[in-house]
Structures are given as structure tokens and as C-alpha cells.
Amino acid sequence: MALSFGKAAYAKVIQRLIERIYHNSPLQDSLYEQAVHWFAGLEERQQQKAELEQQVFLFENRQQQSKKSEQSGISRHLKQAETLHKSFEDKIEEEKYQRYMDLQQLCRDILSLCQGDSFAETNTYSAKMLGTIQLICPTRGKHITKENQKARHLYKAVLSVRLLDRLVMDGLVDHPFIMARYEESKTLPYSDETPYHPYRDDVHVPVLMAAILQDIGRCHPICQAILKGPEGNFDEFRELEADERITFLQTSYSESINYVQQALATGRYMGRDKEERDRFLQSELEKRELLLLLLKQAAKPQHGIGNVLKIPQVYTAMVLSTKHNYNYEDLPKAALALEKSAELGRLSQQSVDAFLKIVGMFPQGFGIPYIPKDSDGNDMERYEYAIVTGLYPPEFKKALCRIVTYSLTYQASARGCVLSVENNLYFPQARRKLEIVPEERLLEILRKLVYNFEERMSSPLIPRSWHPNDYFLNQKNQNLWNKAVTLQN
């Protein structure tokens, strides 16, 4: 059951989730900031560990070779060395466990927001989260790259669990551990109140972890130096040279694996039942193996389970682009690029088909201008604004939207709409319909719909898209996912 929030509160909760994963703050408490700190201190910790082990080894050797009269003094020094060594190991282990528990709680919090009591409810909650991420990220101005960099991990993670579910439902996953937990959970309620749910805790959580940690290796000093330069003054969003890019990708991949293996513990069993403890430890081991398998196979997905991470990664890299040539109108091309990758054999065709069935052509939160129809079903000689708000559109090029302007006036969304290709101005055949409308009338429409004069001056008379961020920033307009009558257009 997803948590219930007020209109404005929900967007703030999503912003906080984003910041718990990737942020730049004085507290340095986000997952990615902590990883930068962990990687930076790795060499020093290894040296400290070696020195403490050396001390124990030296006193053990001395004890074996010393005279009887020297034994008590050496034993005392040995005990001190062993205590220091154990204290160091315990501290490292506790930090690893705390990182794991923080990550697990983060994943549970994500699931509480994107998982419902039914398939339809889950899709609505997931669409709401994805759409909110898109709508709180800037689509104009100088902060696009930085904000998209922060948000893309959460966006990708939600898409990864939805893709996994689709592949499982379609019988396209043959991983024994995943399928066993799925079958075990079929009759169980998926609720925050349930202490243990096999599919949620043993499959969904590791998949979310893998999606969030997929790029954690970029926090390694080698990657940071490539991105930001030795003095930290390079533009990290610039296009890398070919040799830089190869080193960056190889290091990021290998260090992401290292982070999972060295920086994170597994769960701890708290009871006293030996059989229960053995089952728990075995399950923790299998969850860790699933997490590592997803990361490793995502590097070369082909037809394997790695597509669960790779396809959302490719899609998110375009929808929440960090390139300087970012163009909002290009967002729907992300789905088309996936189709092309599948045709070229870089991604599994079946997995891409499953993913596109979920997302369609238009990303959640994308602003679409469209031609409305009158009560007789005839096209009007104007356009209105809608926002994409639904997963699983009836057809790839059709979009499940909320209508946000009526008679060229902004209102809180009360009606849904399935936009046809013929009346969606993203497509040329729809734009051609308005070419007969006089320029004065098109200018009048533009004046009423566009927020500010500067934007109005640079906007085409017949737009392919619109930027809904300003509309969404108004708190009363943030409830785009409540139940509403849906029209066909």
C-alpha cells in the first residue's frame, strides 16, 4: 500500500528521496556523497588494517621465540594489539552494516510510494512518481544537467522494478530465485505492514539496490578526476575523449562491483532459532548474488536478466539527459532509440518490447499540445495543453494524459484523455490541420497559453510540445493522478 500525501507534500517527499540518493550538501549524507568519501579513504583503511595485522603477527612471533621471563609482557602487548585490531574490524563491519540498512530502508521507502494493492494501482503510483520527477526537474535554463544527474537514479530504479514485473508476468524470466519468491508471494498482501514479503524483500529490494548502485563506481577517485579534472574545475558534463570514456566506464563498472562487495554488509539475523537463522543467511547470500548478477549482466545484457537495468538506464539517460545539447522536444525519441538498439541486437528485443508496452512513446510528465474535439466529435480550430500521466497506453504512439487547459484557460486537472496521433501536435499530420488557422488566431492562442512574454516570443505558432513545470509548481495543480473521467481524442 502506497503512503498517502497531500498535493504539495508528495512532490517534497520525491525531492527528498532524490536527495537521499544523490545530493551536494554540507552534511555530505547522500548515498553518492558517502560513496565518494568511502572510495577516497579506501587506501588509508587498507594500510591501517595491514599495520594492525602486522602488529598482531609480530607479537605472536615474539611470544613463540621469547624466554619465559618475557612472556607476560609480550602477552599484554599482544592482547592490546588484538583488541585494537578487533575494534578496527568491528568499526568497519558496523559501518558496512549501517550503509546496507540505510540503502535497504531507502528501497523500502521507494516501494511504499510506487507499489499498490493491485496492478492498476501500482501503475498509477509508479506513473505519479516518474511524472513528478520529470515535472520537478528543470527543462530550461542552466541547471538541467545537475538536476537531471541527481534525479536519474530514482527514475531508473522505478522503471527497473516495473520492467522486471512485466517480464515475470510474460514468462520471460527464468531465474530460479526470482521465480520461487514470485510464486511464494502470489497470495500474500504487498503491504508496508507486512514484516516480510518474499517478492518485495528478496527481489524488488535487490533490483532497486542494483539500479541505484549501478553508477556508484563513478565516485571512485579515478572517475572523479576524469570528470572534474585534477583540480576539480572541469565541466563534468562535457563530452569525454574516447580514451577518457573507456577508462571511466571500465573503472566505474569494476568499482561499482567492489563497492557492493566491500562497502556493504548483508542483513543480520536477530532471533535464536538455528534453522531460521540458516534460512535467513542463505536468503541474504542469494539476494547479494542477485544484486551482483544484475550489475554484471547489465554491462552485456543481450538476452539476460541484465536488461532489467540496462534498458531503463539507456532510456533514463535520454529522458533525464545530462548533455549540454539537451532538447525537451527530443524526449519521445528515447523510446525510438530503444527500438533501434533492439533491432541492432544490443538489447533484448523481447525485453525492449515489454518496456515500451509500459512507457509508450511519451515519457511521464511530458507536455503535449493537442487539438480538442467539439461535442459532435469535430476538430476545433485551436489547441489545448495536456500532460502525460499514465503508463501502459493503449497503443505505442497514443498517450494517456490529463487535460490542463479548457477553452485556453489553465485549470486544475479534472479530466483524462487518450490522445490520438491525428490530434497530437507532436506529429506533423496533426500540425498540418492547424495550418489553415489565421496567424492572428494562432498568436492569440499563444498569448493565452504561454506563461511569459519572453517564452512567447521564441515559441512556434504551432508547437510540438510545451513545458509544464511552471504549471506543476502551483500546488493546486499537482494532483494529476487522482481518478478522473477519460475521454478519447
Automatic annotation (TrEMBL):
Organism expressing this protein natively: Alishewanella tabrizica
Name of the molecule in the record: HD-GYP domain-containing protein
Keywords carried by this UniProt record: Coiled coil
Keyword Coiled coil: yes
Top-rank lineage group of the source organism: Bacteria
Coiled coil (UniProt feature): 42-98
